[in-house]
């Protein structure tokens, strides 16, 4: 079995790995949230622009203005679809980073469990040694009292 210092080194390395994974997870979740906010902003802008166009259309609109509206809406729809793709990518990245963090945390916990077991085993050995020493001391005292 690994020595205490080796286990402590492994635990320290695993702790650093877990911390790094947690930072990457936080950044990925933040990026996913920002991408979703941008998508919602684009969708809101599209709805607002469509409403304004409907109001303008009731007053009358030229064919050129109508074509411009259609072209702009097509570009906006393309941007929305691109942003949806980014949101999906960021969500996948977040899921990957979460898996990485969970794996790093499991590794850290397993090293800690090994250390705890080693400490418990050493305590048992120490307790047996102490008990044996006390038994020998008691038997010597009993022998010399006779």
Automatic annotation (TrEMBL):
Its membrane topology: Peripheral membrane protein
A Pfam family hit: FliJ
Claim: DNA-binding is one of the keywords in the record: no
Gene3D superfamilies the UniProt entry points to: 1.10.287.1700
Cellular location(s): Cell membrane
GO terms for cellular component: bacterial-type flagellum; plasma membrane
Major localization class: membrane
Stretches the record annotates as Disordered: 94-146
Origin superkingdom: Bacteria
Keyword line: Bacterial flagellum biogenesis, Bacterial flagellum protein export, Cell membrane, Cell projection, Chemotaxis, Cilium, Flagellum, Membrane, Protein transport, Transport
Keyword Transport among record annotations: yes
Any GO MF annotation of the entry: cytoskeletal motor activity
Biased composition (Basic and acidic residues): 104-118, 125-139
One BP term from GO: bacterial-type flagellum organization
Family the entry assigns: Belongs to the FliJ family.
Cross-referenced NCBIfam families: flagell_FliJ
The protein's name: Flagellar FliJ protein
Gene source species: Pseudoduganella violacea
């Amino acid at each position: 079995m690994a020595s205490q210092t080796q286990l402590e080194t492994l635990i320290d390395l695993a702790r650093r790995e877990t911390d790094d994974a947690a930072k990457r997870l936080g950044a990925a979740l933040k990026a996913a949230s920002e991408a979703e906010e941008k998508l919602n902003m684009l969708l809101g802008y599209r709805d607002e622009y469509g409403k304004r166009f409907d109001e303008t259309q009731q007053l009358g609109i030229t064919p050129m203005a109508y074509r411009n509206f259609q072209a702009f809406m097509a570009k906006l729809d393309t941007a929305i679809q691109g942003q949806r793709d980014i949101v999906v990518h960021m969500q996948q990245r977040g899921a990957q980073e979460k898996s990485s963090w969970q794996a790093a945390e499991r590794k850290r916990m397993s090293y800690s469990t090994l250390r705890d077991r080693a400490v418990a085993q050493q305590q048992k050995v120490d307790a047996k040694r102490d008990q044996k020493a006390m038994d020998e001391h008691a038997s010597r005292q009993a022998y010399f009292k006779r």
